[in-house]
């Protein structure tokens, strides 16, 4: 018999199962190469002849061999795992960011360990959890993080890079869209289209991303001669539903002049505002109220919205973030205090009319069906 009466496998069966696992040395012997060549054959981007790689892979297939990443990490002191801390997955922008990071890291032979935190909350608890996994680096795409946690990671030799945000007073490096300049681009588009009264739907009150977009937008309007009293701010909680409800409340407020231009500081809030204006309030976009967004998520490009927005260069931002982590050279000192703002681009669509003076140079893109 090979099992106990309670169904547990016997020692003989356990030994048979364990002994059936081939090693890289077995593959090397069958393929006629060294063990280090086997290792290179399974490492993306390594220098090895195609014929040799094929011979190694065929030997591995015959022996049912797969590399043991845990054993490898004990030798190299590297796990090839990068932790990604994500906040608001209700915002499709961060879903696309997650996809881009995952694709790029997998191309490099690395894996992503994902931690999610509630919007507007601290990331310190997630940092304490990820430290258990001996990750090679951390990317923080959303939420807040204390300088104490940044120091804790750096002291352990784990680099942290902030994505699309920065933490004032910390030495954490970061890559971000130039959100101040992007906010100014939307303001310029409204001014060029003839808007006079403006509304802002703001997001995370603690985050630098929303704050910088608001600042760039307001400063550009003030520079254009708009009175501060003609700029109204309402909180949209960084969500579609929050912006939908805030827009209804704003437009129904009889004590305010109805704005003719509304800026949602991210696309998902701009889309919530558009739906509230059209379907709950019976207003036309852009004829009655112009709407601008920020991010250029694919959902905003579709025919129901055709949203004018600022496009964040996600691919470039992800590549810059990974370059600061120095994953290929763990001996490189941790980058501290690097701040790389990258310019966004205004994308004209239907929700802000393209003024005649801009029609020859405006970056107009087709909407997606």
UniProtKB/TrEMBL annotation:
Transmembrane segments: none annotated. This is DNA-binding transcriptional regulator, LacI/PurR family. GO terms for molecular function: DNA-binding transcription factor activity; transcription cis-regulatory region binding. SMART domains: HTH_LACI. It comes from Devosia lucknowensis. PANTHER family: LACI-RELATED TRANSCRIPTIONAL REPRESSOR, RIBOSE OPERON REPRESSOR. Residues 22-76 form the HTH lacI-type domain. The keyword Repressor applies.
């Amino acid at each position: 018999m090979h099992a106990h009466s309670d169904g547990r496998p016997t020692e003989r069966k356990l030994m048979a199962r364990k002994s059936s696992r081939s090693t890289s040395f077995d593959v090397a012997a069958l393929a006629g190469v060294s063990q280090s060549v086997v290792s290179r054959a399974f490492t993306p981007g390594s220098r090895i002849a195609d014929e040799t790689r094929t011979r190694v892979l065929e030997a591995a297939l015959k022996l049912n061999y797969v590399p043991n990443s845990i054993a490898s990490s004990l030798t190299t002191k590297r796990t090839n795992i990068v932790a990604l801390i994500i906040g608001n997955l209700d915002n499709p922008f961060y879903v696309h960011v997650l996809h881009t990071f995952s694709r790029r890291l997998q191309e490099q032979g690395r894996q992503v360990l994902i931690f999610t935190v509630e919007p507007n909350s601290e990331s310190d608890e997630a940092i304490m959890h990820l430290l258990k996994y001996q990750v090679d680096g951390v990317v923080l795409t959303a939420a807040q993080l204390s300088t104490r946690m940044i120091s804790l990671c750096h002291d352990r030799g784990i680099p942290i890079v902030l994505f699309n945000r920065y933490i004032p007073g910390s030495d954490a490096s970061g890559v971000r869209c130039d959100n101040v300049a992007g906010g100014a681009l939307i303001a310029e588009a409204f001014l060029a289209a003839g808007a006079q009264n403006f509304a802002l739907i703001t997001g995370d009150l603690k985050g630098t991303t929303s704050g910088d977009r608001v600042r760039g937008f307001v400063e550009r309007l003030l520079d254009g001669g708009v009175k501060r009293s003609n700029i109204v701010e309402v909180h949209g909680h960084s969500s579609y539903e929050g912006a939908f409800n805030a827009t209804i409340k704003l437009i129904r407020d009889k004590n305010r002049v109805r704005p003719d231009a509304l800026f949602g500081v991210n696309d998902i809030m701009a889309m919530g505002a558009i739906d509230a204006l059209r379907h709950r309030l019976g207003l036309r976009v852009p004829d009655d109220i112009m709407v601008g967004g920020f991010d250029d998520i694919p959902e905003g490009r579709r025919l129901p919205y055709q949203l004018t927005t600022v496009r964040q260069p996600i691919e470039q931002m992800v590549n810059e973030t990974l370059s600061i982590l120095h994953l290929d050279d763990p001996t490189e000192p941790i980058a501290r205090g690097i701040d790389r703002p990258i310019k966004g681009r205004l994308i004209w669509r239907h929700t802000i009319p393209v003024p005649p003076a801009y029609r020859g140079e405006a970056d107009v893109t087709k909407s997606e069906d």
